[in-house]
Amino acid sequence: MIHHDKLLIIDFGSQVTQLIARRLRELSVYCEIHPYHKVDAGFLANFAPRAVILSGGPASVFAAGAPLPPPTLFDMNIPVLGICYGQQAMMHTLGGRVERGHGTAEFGRAYVTKASDGVAGGDLALLQGWFAPDAREQVWMSHGDHVSQIAPGFKVYGTSPNAPFAITADPARHFYAVQFHPEVHHTPKGAKLFENFVRLAGFKGDWTMGAYRAEAVAKIRAQVGDAKVICGLSGGVDSSVAAVLIHEAIGDQLTCVFVDHGLLRLGEAEQVVTMFRDTYNMPLIHADESDMFLSALAGVSDPEVKRKTIGRLFIDVFQKHATAVGGAKFLAQGTLYPDVIESVSFSGGPSVTIKSHHNVGGLPEKMGLKLVEPLRELFKDEVRALGRELGLPPAFIGRHPFPGPGLAIRCPGEITAEKLDILRRADAVYIDQIRKHGLYDEIWQAFAAILPMKTVGVMGDGRTYDYALALRAVTSVDGMTADTYPFTHAFLGETMTRIINEVGGVNRVFYDITSKPPGTIELE
Fold it and tell me: Taking the alpha carbons of 478, 479, 480, 481 in that order, is the dihedral positive or negative?
């Protein structure tokens, strides 16, 4: 294994903690996230980080049992950066004061200016090249509490309207703290702060996708040994990259199981089987279980029940084929971090559950299989970079994400064969339109959804009473936040006309302009 200088991120429960790791990986810095309750003096001594970042979180430092870093952290003579709650935890631990007061909360876009007490932001290594020439920089705030008194030894380097200590530091001890979130996309120059922090901490920047590939292969071999592995292959980028990576590690010990649950896009099953059997020459089982899945989903409208039903049936199918393979001991999945953080707390931390994902949460004991998830801590863009490193075709790596539950979560309400047929054909027209207009690579994810409603229409001088469709297209960097794609009215009108003319059973089309948050990318 390659030995890296390590940066430790102590997780206090922020929904965007992993974005900190992503920013650091962009700088080729090796880092690990660990929840605050597992980081004590012994852990710090064993981990031996070159630097530490304290994440944000939902707690208040003055509440009973509030999560705090171990005091010994501040005696290690290493750089420490506190972000949002991490700043408050740092101030509280080192002798400052944190309060909750009327009018001091900030949520969303804010602007930080250089402190007015004569301290020049440019003199601080963390802020080199950060402040705009007019000394005003956009940031993203999300805090109810605020620092009301900084700890001894700290100075103020930046303020915002509701955060008088938006940027503080004790340069002599290499302690830095910011009230805003530099890790999110909405702090445009946040990456510059991380770049400055890792530079002043002395990181060499030796973590790359090539290094990750080599380490992942070594970890897979160490975990699996000579045992057989079955891989849940959906045909999407995530499971495909996982399959190719694992196949590189253990060869024909791997058997891919492609489960056709009857919820795939038009022609997808044929494409997946052809690609992996002919191109990659991997052992592949094509399990057509569509009747079983659709029967189990009949009459089900609750989205969580849909997801859990699909997850349970996947487990049953994999268990059956693990037995058929003969002694498989591991199940491989293409689980990514955004799936994990929305389902359960990453690394056992205290973040809040948003929704369950069918492929997250471990396996029932009855399976007798252990999980292999080599992509579990990666974002989609990192998976694509790893796919390029593995030599997957560029057109395939650039495919839009497709959820494991498939069209089930693009069909709010009850699922029927008629609705799925309409949805497949409409989605195919929509994606064809996007490709024809050269927009596919500009969009993170685009799809059609069939709404649980019928509307009255007029077609050919006659009355219709057919389904309504919603079209969705978003831009994103990592899937954690997303903005609607700004199609022209001309494009939307042309697409609507094609769908109405080419897909029977539809007489109305909407375009969903909801961002994430407050919505999620998928409808369910």
Answer: positive
Question: Which domain range does residue 486 map to?
Answer: 416-511
Minimal CA–CA distance to 479: which of 416, 390, 403, 396?
Answer: 403
Cis link prior to 393 (omega < 30° from 0)? no
Which pairing describes strands 80-83 and 30-35: parallel, antiparallel, or unpaired? Answer: unpaired
Cβ burial 232-267 (10 Å sphere, 16+ → b, else e): bbbbbbbbbbbbbbbbebbeebbbbbbbbbbbbbbe
3-class secondary-structure state, position 105: coil
Query: Same domain for 280 and 135?
Result: no
pLDDT digits (tens, 9 = 90+) for 358-396: 444 444 555 678 899 999 878 788 899 999 999 888 878
Which one of 183, 201, 219 terminates a domain? 201
Tell me if residue 366 falls in helix, strand or coil: helix
Looking up residue 472, the CATH number of its domain turns out to be 3.30.300.10
**Which residues are the active-site residues?**
84, 181, 183
Calpha distance 234→240 (Å, rounded): 7
Instruction: Quote the CA–CA distance of 144 and 124 in Å, as a whole number.
Output: 27
State pTM to two decimals: 0.70
